[in-house]
Amino acid sequence: MADLKLARDFPVSAETLFAWISEGTRLLQWWGPEGVEVPEHDLDFSRLGPWYSVMVNGEGQRFKVSGHVTHVDPPNSVGFTWGWHDDQDQRGAESHVTLAVEPTGTGARLILDHRDLGDDDVSANHESGWTSSLRKLEARLANPV
C-alpha cells in the first residue's frame, strides 16, 4: 500500500491553523483542487462522525468522497477515513488521512498523512490533488477574509 506525506509551514498560530483544517466554513475555502467547486457537502472535522463532499470541475464532472472523522484533538490533529464513490454512488476502497498541526518558531506546520492509498498511481493522483488544495490554503492564510 502506498502512503503520502506532505508538510507545509504557515505564518499563523497552531490554533488558527487547526481551525482552518477542522471548521466546515473554513474547510470549504480550500477543500478540493484548484478549479473545483464544492456544491454539496457535510464538511466538519471538529466532531466525530460521517462527512462527505461532492467536488465539481470546470467540465461539470462530479467527484464524491466520504468517510468518518475518527479523532479530533484540538489544536493537534484530526483524522478521517476517505473513500471515493463511483458513478452509481458506491463507495470504493478506504484510506486514512491525518492532518497534524505542530507549532514552529514562525507559526505552525501542517503535516498531511494519507495512508493505505493502494498503488503508486493512486498515491500520485492524491499527491497532485492535495498539493493543489494546500496551495489554496496557503493563499487563504496569506490573505484571510
From TrEMBL:
Sequence ranges assigned to domain Activator of Hsp90 ATPase homologue 1/2-like C-terminal in this UniProt record: 12-141
InterPro entries (alphabetical): ASHA1/2-like_C, START-like_dom_sf
Gene3D superfamilies associated with the record: 3.30.530.20
Coiled coil (residue ranges): none
Family: Belongs to the AHA1 family.
Name this protein carries in UniProt: Activator of Hsp90 ATPase homologue 1/2-like C-terminal domain-containing protein
